[in-house]
Design a protein that fits this description.
The chain is an alpha/beta fold. It contains 11 helices and 11 strands.
């Protein structure tokens, strides 16, 4: 069994370098050693430590930015890109613990589905979010109270401890992304689905590539927020229409559940190459200058930036 020397840097607060979706894929056929002198570096978007390493670099993007292939040899992210063997689309929601729950049959009966409160929302951070989420929350609240269980706009007596349990008590859940970027689908719509509540979604214009658009309310598809609210009111007052939507499967293309095998193939292709052949980045020309400039910018006043990065990690840890 081959030993792989790897390291993880610049991931989100709480990321476990010894137990995660990447090590799970590699552990099947390799002995993993996490070390500060790696042959393969996995990094994300919450810092610049990756610039200090000179090895095969593999980026994982869990946010709404495009991988910088001038700084990484390979990448995984939300975007639909074709770049030889250097890229795999791996949206963050696939790696969530409850993703496979979407395969389960919808066993809730009509009475249980209908005899619930109206609508929920759980939002903890709005600093980096599009203002449309709050505008929609206020607009829908003019029809009926929308119970807000997060730190923002809370009207249920304080932040809830269990998001899934909380939103399962409602017919609808507002599941808005922080931005509308093609391919950028996070865990928000999936959390609503696994709680068996009807998602009211805004965000990825290509959301239908990930989930069955007949199984949720896609605010992107309406000409205005007011029109979307009218549709929700119609479903709230028409039990038959509501139940018909709730019968729809969340996912139509079941091949999406094969992502772990696809990840293994992607990573195996990298590590089976000789190290020199696995590297696409070079230390010459303008690419070298670009990396040097990035280091200069990233590490200027580094001591001042560290507290801000830690604060960002903690903020994004519960960023619904």
């Amino acid at each position: 069994m081959r030993t792989l020397k790897i390291q993880f840097v610049d991931f989100w607060y709480g990321f476990d370098p010894n137990n995660n979706f990447i090590t799970n894929a590699l552990n099947r056929d390799h002995k993993i050693v996490v070390t500060d002198t790696p042959d393969y570096l996995f990094f994300s978007v919450f810092g610049y430590s990756h610039l200090k390493y000179n090895c095969v670099k593999i980026m994982f993007v869990g946010e709404n930015i495009v991988p910088d292939f001038n700084l990484c040899d390979y990448a995984m992210g939300f975007d639909y890109l074709t770049f030889g063997d250097r890229y795999m689309r791996l949206p963050l929601f696939l790696t969530c613990f409850n993703f496979k729950d979407l395969l389960q049959d919808k066993k809730w009966g009509a009475e249980k589905l209908l005899n619930r409160k109206f609508c929920s929302i759980v939002v903890s951070n709005i600093n980096l979010s599009n203002s449309i989420r709050e505008r929609f929350f206020r607009l829908l609240s003019e029809y009926k109270q929308v119970d807000s269980g997060g730190r923002q706009w809370n009207n249920v007596g304080g932040p809830v401890q269990d998001k899934q349990e909380f939103i399962s008590n409602y017919k609808f859940n507002i599941a808005f992304e922080n931005s509308a970027v093609r391919g950028y689908t996070t865990e928000k719509i999936m959390d609503a689905m696994t709680a068996n509540t009807l998602p009211i979604y805004w965000g990825n214009p290509w959301i239908g590539k990930d989930f069955n658009e007949r199984s949720f309310i896609n605010v992107n598809a309406f000409s205005s927020l007011e029109e979307a609210v009218q549709r929700i009111v119609e479903l709230d007052t028409n039990d038959e229409q509501y139940l018909n939507i709730m019968k729809e499967p969340w996912v139509e293309d079941l091949s999406i559940f094969n992502w772990e095998n696809k990840l293994k193939v992607f990573l195996t292709n990298i590590i089976e190459k000789p190290l020199t052949e696995a590297r696409y980045l070079v230390d010459d020309g303008i690419q070298k200058l670009h990396k040097q400039n990035m280091k200069t910018l990233a590490f200027a006043n580094e001591k001042l930036k560290i507290p801000r990065l830690i604060a960002m990690y903690k903020l994004l840890k519960g960023k619904n």
